[in-house]
Specification:
This protein is α+β, with helices and mostly antiparallel strands. It has 13 helices and 20 strands. The relative contact order is 0.11.
Length: about 425
């Protein structure tokens, strides 16, 4: 299997590579950061497959195809990176291998194109979800694009529904995503973002106020399984940083699930893993973004554990051309709370608790530091501000919440 990656991630290190080993696969890892991967895997105790790390400009699909072709006949091409889905899909199609439709991969990564695609997809009488509740297509999310080369000042006269949100068109992890109150602030924020991202295309969108949820799906192009979802709590505006997530089990089905699935079908999404974020507004599910890969920040690791299924193997098997079972056999009684400890200022982390795993009263607490004591960082206002993550799992949500509160009260994170 050829695996495309940028920087090392927990999803690959703890999820996909061990899964590849269990499937008996040899892996050629194509990356533009080979030294980082060498360091990451050298200090891990996971069972890795036979692994060949190859330098490659993985953002260039032509280079990816050329590098894979030089290795001979590939068996599968896979990536879990937000940034590399289109490249992996194009390479898979070039070699006649199973994979995502590259158009759907591009459509979901490019937030302006996603909005155009959803606005253009009207109710379809052949689709029961649309026929039953076409509200999403009758009321698309307002958006506008500041293309590469366009000056932010051109947005001054934009007839936007303020407050609205500005974000990089191909951005991730809420980086440079900000709520703006009026036209003056919109232009100013765009200038600031462009200073950090010269020439970047930006998207201005209607602010979707309401409860934020996710839907996690897994498909093989024939069957699309709902794995569950999460209810997400964010930091206060103007920034949008995930602070905690609570699991929403797949059974019984959550309200709005059919609406979200209908929109995914309109985008052509249905192969491999997908992590979709949406806001609940009354009886409507309004998409924020579609990440055509597994959920990250260790939520995928917890999801596999709670569902009791070989999730990472299933994802890889779809890219090997194997069909998914009609019933994944997933458990539905598990509950989880993901609690992210956030830096509230720039500076050096002077003290923080070490990694720990405890189990009491049916609740398992797994705390993992994400920043070492002594490290100094700026304030990013993204998930790069995470100091640590607490994974609390069990079957009783009340006990889980109480255990998290006790853990946070008993520990201290100090930045100087």
């Amino acid at each position: 299997m050829h695996l495309l990656a940028l920087n090392p991630t927990d999803s690959v290190t703890e999820g996909f590579l061990p899964a590849a080993a269990r499937l008996g696969l040899a892996v050629t890892l194509l990356t533009d950061q080979p030294e980082a991967h060498e360091r990451a895997y050298g200090r891990q105790d996971h069972a890795f497959p036979a692994l060949d790390i190859v330098p490659c400009d993985v953002r260039d699909f032509a280079e990816v195809i050329s590098r894979i072709a030089a290795d001979g006949s590939p068996r599968a091409v896979f990536t879990n990176s937000d940034h590399l889905q289109t490249q992996a899909a194009l390479a898979a199609e070039y070699f006649g291998l199973p994979g995502k439709d590259w158009r759907a991969a591009l459509r979901t990564k490019n937030k302006a194109e996603l909005r155009r695609a959803l606005a253009a997809a009207g109710p379809d009488a052949a689709d029961p979800a649309w026929s039953a509740d076409p509200a999403w297509s009758a009321d698309p999310v307002w958006s506008a694009e500041l293309a590469t080369g366009q000056e932010p000042a051109t947005l001054a006269g934009l007839d936007a529904p303020y407050p609205c949100v500005v974000k990089p068109r191909e951005g991730v992890a809420s980086e440079d995503v900000v709520l703006v109150a009026d036209a003056d602030e919109l232009v100013r924020r765009c200038v600031e973002i462009r200073a950090r991202r010269p020439g970047a295309a930006l998207v201005v969108e209607e602010f979707l106020d309401g409860e934020l949820r996710t839907l996690e799906t897994l498909g093989d192009g024939r069957t699309l399984h709902v794995l569950g979802g999460f209810r997400t709590e964010l930091s206060p505006p103007p920034h949008f940083i995930e602070e905690r997530l609570h699991l929403l089990p797949a059974s019984p089905p959550q309200p709005h699930t059919d609406q979200v699935l209908a929109q995914l079908r309109a985008l052509g999404v249905g192969f491999g893993a997908c992590h979709t974020e949406y806001v609940v507004q009354g009886d409507r599910a309004r998409l924020i973004e579609v990440n055509y890969r597994a959920i990250g920040d260790q939520c995928d690791l917890v999801l596999a554990e709670l569902l009791g299924i070989p999730l990472f193997e299933y994802i890889l098997r779809t890219h090997l051309g194997e069909p998914l079972p009609d019933d994944l056999g997933a458990r539905t009684d598990g509950r989880v709370r993901m609690e992210y400890v956030l830096a509230d200022r720039a500076g050096r982390l002077a003290s923080a608790p070490p990694a720990s795993v405890t189990e009491r009263d049916g609740v398992r607490l797994d705390y993992r530091p994400l920043r070492g004591v002594g490290e100094e960082h700026p304030l990013h206002r993204t998930n790069r501000d995470f100091l640590g993550v607490l994974r609390a799992t069990g079957t009783d949500q009340g006990r889980i919440d109480a255990a998290v509160a006790q853990f946070l009260a008993a520990h201290r994170w100090e930045i100087v």
